[in-house]
Specification:
Blueprint: H1 2-16, H2 20-33, H3 42-45, H4 48-87, E1 92-93, E2 96-97, H5 103-124, H6 133-176, H7 184-215, H8 220-223, H9 228-240, H10 243-258, H11 266-270, H12 276-292, H13 306-312, H14 318-342, H15 349-355
Length: about 375
């Protein structure tokens, strides 16, 4: 089950990671040119809305389709994604989005559309007469795209828009109730089950994008990506752990904190589940500080490394962001160390397998 979850998480990551440069470009445009940005510019502000509403979801849909069925799958995935975007009924006002962008919809329909195209080709390509291959290729894709765009506009788009709004309302309701730090409990559980990319890019990043388009920052970008709790956990293993977990922790720290590969620490929690309490401690303490300082980032930092954080921290937000990160490290380290002293990890063959087999004993979760 863990292997399947990891594979699923890796597939979701594969749709987003190749397009991170575009996310960063949008974040920089937002940070500089919105009214509260570094250099406000009404003309360049007009780039903000179309990029986040149309370009980024279409890129994700194209990439997801390409992963399933090459360039042909990418094209049909893009068409299907446009149907979803229009069907979700987004509003653009002064360069800002009215609802969360359809990242989640793109991650679903891009691969699905490509799979349908692949099955149609498998059924009919061998029956195409010689000399008519290009005619078949172009018209089959065009006709399927025609149908999927309509289905997306009238069926899938409203459904995905409703799901996105429901998830957004849930998170915003938690925020309005002053309970945002509590959201760290399900977030950390989902992360160690390799659902981090679905949580971040499917739920939190769209909410953050809507906020950042208006204010230049969002706290939602901080909730899942914060490397502080993971760093504190790994430091606790280095300081108070035993065996392979202790020996591999220093290498994992470098990959996690500087490389931004959070998957590296997931096996350390899975092999000793009580350590999820350490993650909760770090995440909740950090979120309390983020809320107190009204902290936020201009775009989602991906991968979640300290270098990515430096790139997307807007003007005036450094104290709240990095104080929260440091507090997360301290809280996760203290709680993790206590847990390892009270309930040490039992060294077994299964534990060594869970940690991984890369050179130096570094876990292979990333």
């Amino acid at each position: 089950m863990l292997a399947r979850l990891q594979k699923f998480g890796g597939f979701l990551a594969g749709m987003v990671i190749p397009n991170i440069g575009a996310f960063i470009a949008w974040g920089l445009i937002t940070a500089f040119f919105i009214p509260t940005g570094w250099t406000p510019n009404d003309d360049l502000l007009e780039l903000v809305g179309p990029i986040i509403v149309y370009l980024l979801p279409v890129l994700i849909g194209f990439t997801g389709g390409k992963m399933v069925y090459g360039h042909r799958g990418g094209v049909i995935g893009s068409i299907a994604t446009m149907g979803i975007i229009v069907g979700a009924d987004f509003a653009l006002e002064s360069g800002a989005t009215g609802d969360p962008p359809q990242f989640l919809g793109a991650m679903l329909v891009g691969p699905l559309a490509a799979w349908i195209m692949m099955k149609i080709d498998q059924a009919f390509q061998d029956k195409v007469a010689v000399g008519f291959e290009m005619l078949y290729n172009n018209f089959s894709l065009g006709i399927l795209g025609f149908g999927l765009a309509i289905v997306g506009r009238y069926i899938m788009g409203p459904i995905m828009g409703g799901i996105a709004n429901a998830l957004g309302n849930l998170v915003e309701g938690i925020t309005d109730a002053g309970l945002l730090p509590v959201a760290d409990i399900p977030i950390e559980v989902g992360k160690v089950l390799f659902l981090n990319n679905a949580i971040n890019h499917g739920i939190l990043a769209p909410l953050g994008a809507a906020d950042a388009a208006e204010t230049g920052k969002s706290i939602y970008f901080l909730l899942e990506t914060n490397p502080g709790p993971g760093l504190g956990l790994l430091l606790a293993y280095w300081f108070a752990g035993k065996g392979m977990a202790k020996l591999s922790a220093p290498g994992a720290i470098v990959i996690h904190f500087f490389g931004g590969i959070h998957e590296i620490y997931f096996p350390y929690v899975l092999m000793h589940p009580i350590m999820i309490v350490s993650m909760w401690a770090g995440g909740i303490v950090a979120d309390i500080i983020f809320v107190a300082f009204d902290a936020g980032l201009s775009a989602t930092p991906s991968p979640g490394s300290i270098f990515a954080y430096l790139a997307v921290t807007p003007r005036g937000e450094h104290l709240g962001v990095y104080l929260g990160m440091a507090a997360a490290v301290a809280a996760a380290f203290v709680v993790g160390t206590l847990l390892l002293r009270i309930s040490p990890v039992k060294e077994t063959e299964g534990t060594d397998e869970m940690i991984g087999t890369m050179p130096g004993g570094i876990p292979t979760g990333g």
